[in-house]
Amino acid sequence: LSVYHRFYWLMNLNTTVVFLGISYIQHSGAWVLVLLIPFMSISSALLLIHLAFFSLLTCSRQGCSLLTTFRVFMSALKTSCLQYGRLGRDTTSWLDHAKERNGGCYSELCVEDIRFFFTLLLLFISQLLYRICIMQIPSGYYLQTMNSNLNLDGFLLPIAVMSAISILPLLILAPFMEYFSTCLYPSKRDGPFLWACIIAGNLSAAFSVMVAGFFEIHRKHFPSVEQLLLGKVLTVSSMPCFYLVLQYVLLGVAETLVNPAFSIISYRFVPSTIRGTFVNFLTLFNGFGCFTGALLVELVYLISEGNWFPNTLNKGNLESFFFFLASLTLLNVLGFWSVSQRYCNLNHFNAQNISGSNLEETLLLHEKSLKFYGSIQELFSSIDLWETAL
């Protein structure tokens, strides 16, 4: 767990540097850097990958890839449809039709690991609303920030600074989380602790969106002022943008709690044969959550006729969208809590479901031991013959 805390700490430190660089570009207007910085970054990355190419080559573990998972699913589905959904004597679910002993093309271990993977799909689906809340930073939260007073004693604060503020909680809390999990309670880093972190992170995201709704109501009570932004004079609220810091901080706390927990789940409790598939699907659903958020905004805009996500913020009710999203997230937390009870003791769940994955490795180890034992036996037999000859 400490490894993932350090990984996310370093990754967000890099992100902070990126957003501070964007803030400098917004403030100075040096738009040449918009092309120069990405070009230099990609060139440096390609150079480092080329230098470390041979160090990155490792022997990959044979297992069920994403393509194999899809093929097993389609094979079992096709066989089930051909047999009109009737299960055989040796089958307990439709996925068993893909096994070799039932006429399929895949081994018992591969199908059982994929069955375990499908039991985790609810975890992916439950994080869609959480990802929608996180994606409010470059959408709804930025609209609020643009329509608030960015003037700080004559200095026009770049909007990208607010994204850097949302990363600060992770940079501050990650070392404390590592100390808490490794030094204070090292024996409590099992399933219940990880689920508690995920639920707390989802609650923090829901409260962030709710706080954004209350500040949106509060922002409209401030008198309007004119503000120069991106070469245009905009009429915005005189409420200082620092009032919005709390909602950014709560989203940063949510990321601190959720991301390392899901990473450790994928490492400790997922079979090694499908671990890569699990990580791929986790990334896929994170991206799908972003597209779902964009679709939700479009639906809300069309249904409310532009009132809940207005083109001009002062002429609509963006707070209604925030409260609606917060309500959906709270309901999602309740659903996730009820689902997580079946995975509460992940060590026992892991032992029951993926012990078969380690069976092949154990058999290979025994095979090597038997070969070693046979070679030792031959050695001692040779010694005995040599002594007899003497």
TrEMBL record:
Pfam families, per the entry: PTR2 (PF00854)
Superkingdom field: Eukaryota
Keyword tags: Membrane, Peptide transport, Protein transport, Symport, Transmembrane, Transmembrane helix, Transport
GO molecular function terms attached to this record: symporter activity
Biological process (GO), any one: peptide transport
Membrane spanning residue stretches: 7-25, 31-57, 116-137, 157-181, 193-215, 235-258, 278-301, 321-339
Location within or outside the cell: Membrane
Annotated Gene Ontology cellular component terms: membrane
Bilayer topology term: Multi-pass membrane protein
Keyword Transmembrane: yes
Family of the protein in this entry: Belongs to the major facilitator superfamily. Proton-dependent oligopeptide transporter (POT/PTR) (TC 2.A.17) family.
Listed name of the protein: Solute carrier family 15 member 5
Species annotation: Otolemur garnettii (Small-eared galago)
